[in-house]
Amino acid sequence: MNKVILIGNLARDPELSETPNGIAVCRLTVAVSRSYGNSEADFFNVTVWRERAETCAKYLSKGSKVGIVGSLQNRSYEDKDGVKRYATDIVANEVEFLSQKSSNNDEKFEADSAPTKTVRPTLEPIDDDKLPF
């Protein structure tokens, strides 16, 4: 099983780009505080794809609190000096926006992005003797 769950704040603004085939990809750096009030943090590279990537780039900015659910992915590449480097990224399957809308970010949020309250119907009691099981 390969599953990662993080809650943290963006360390910088999201970077949106496209693959040569036109698929949107957004790169995030998420700072996650270590437990028990320690002032240290770990920084994780997160990759988000397609429509979710475009949404992240549109609504998130440095400091935004996010919840990430995804998986670890290892990759290797050669740097400009020809040295083989290795990196571990988190590929996000879910990105939850956890920051409250602030007054200086009003233009970044649209009315339809606010969560709506679910109205639950009133249920009638059921007589246990009428259940088929």
Outline the structure in words.
The protein is built from one helix and six strands; from the N terminus they run E-E-E-E-H-E-E. By secondary structure, the chain is mainly beta. The chain has a single domain, classed as OB fold (Dihydrolipoamide Acetyltransferase, E2P) (Beta Barrel). A hairpin with a 7-residue loop joins strand 3 (24-33) and strand 4 (41-49). The radius of gyration is 21 Å and the shape is elongated. Residues 105-115 have low confidence and may be disordered.
User: Whole-number average pLDDT?
Assistant: 84
CATH superfamily membership, which one? Nucleic acid-binding proteins
> Rg, please?
21 Å
Q: Provide the β-strand percentage band.
A: 35-45%
Number of helices: 1
Largest sheet: 5 strands, mixed, barrel
SS class: mainly beta
Order of helices and strands: EEEEHEE
The outline comes out as elongated
Task: Please render the helix and strand layout as text.
Elements: E1 4-10, E2 15-18, E3 24-33, E4 41-49, H1 50-59, E5 65-78, E6 84-97
Parallel strand pairs: 4-6
Antiparallel strand pairs: 1-3, 1-5, 2-3, 3-4, 5-6
